[in-house]
Design the sequence.
């Protein structure tokens, strides 16, 4: 199987199918006719904020805090609790501080994350593929 076909199958796959299957081994015996096109965009630069090692950063921050170590740890615990409470929305104690959080986040982006080394990621894939025909397929196990 070539790389284009493997990518087409991956992009065509129903990502929600896993939730519909029970744990175990399932037989697969199918012949599927796919047709369409795949467009692969240029690789792009990005700042890897998602892959930052959070625990190591907190440990280094505390180690460098010196005599303010206890206060620093208390602040980190408080901030972790507030961030967990918000669950991605402006809830909890952050609800009252949305503007302050936005301003501080802008400072973090400008003064910290914008100065991190960028990485390169594979370009996005646009896939316009459809299954024309499923020629053979085993019936699903009950």
Sequence:
């Amino acid at each position: 199987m070539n790389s284009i076909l493997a990518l087409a199958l991956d992009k065509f796959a129903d990502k929600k199918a896993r939730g519909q299957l029970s744990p175990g081994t399932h037989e697969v015996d199918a012949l599927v006719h796919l047709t369409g096109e795949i467009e692969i965009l240029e690789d792009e630069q990005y700042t890897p904020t998602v892959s930052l090692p959070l625990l190591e950063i907190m440990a280094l921050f505390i180690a460098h805090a010196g005599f303010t170590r206890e206060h620093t740890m208390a602040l980190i615990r408080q901030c972790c609790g507030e961030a967990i409470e918000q669950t991605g929305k402006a809830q909890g104690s952050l609800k009252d501080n949305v503007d302050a959080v936005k301003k501080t986040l802008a400072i973090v982006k400008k003064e910290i994350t914008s100065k991190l080394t960028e990485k390169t990621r594979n370009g996005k894939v646009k896939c316009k593929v459809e299954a024309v025909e499923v020629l053979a397929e085993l019936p699903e196990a009950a």
